[in-house]
């Protein structure tokens, strides 16, 4: 279990820059660039909701996360993954992608001290219905609206 740490808010522009760099490195297989972005105790959490493939449990530590991303980079190279939008996902810098199966996926990055401390991937189509509707028009507004609502609910 991750030790509780004080939360440091990353500058919005820097957060978006890191999210775009993370997308590029993770999809191209640039493990050197990806590794430079990750905290030693990084964790990766994925939610497929039993409807799409996802990790059964979180992955902890830079070595394990890097190994997983090396495998994923091969999948992305063969099947593709398209950046739809870089922005804030539930208050964290991240991005929305359309995967090879045509489904949307979100990736949110918790950044601490300039490094990615946690990666949150949502692949569960039930949790992404609002994005599917929004992708047919007005996509950015729906992502930001959802992010503001989620961020305000965390403060309660």
TrEMBL record:
It comes from the Bacteria. One of its GO terms (molecular function) is sigma factor activity. SUPFAM superfamilies: NTF2-like. InterPro entries: ECF_Sigma-70_Domain, NTF2-like_dom_sf. This is RNA polymerase sigma-70 factor, ECF subfamily.
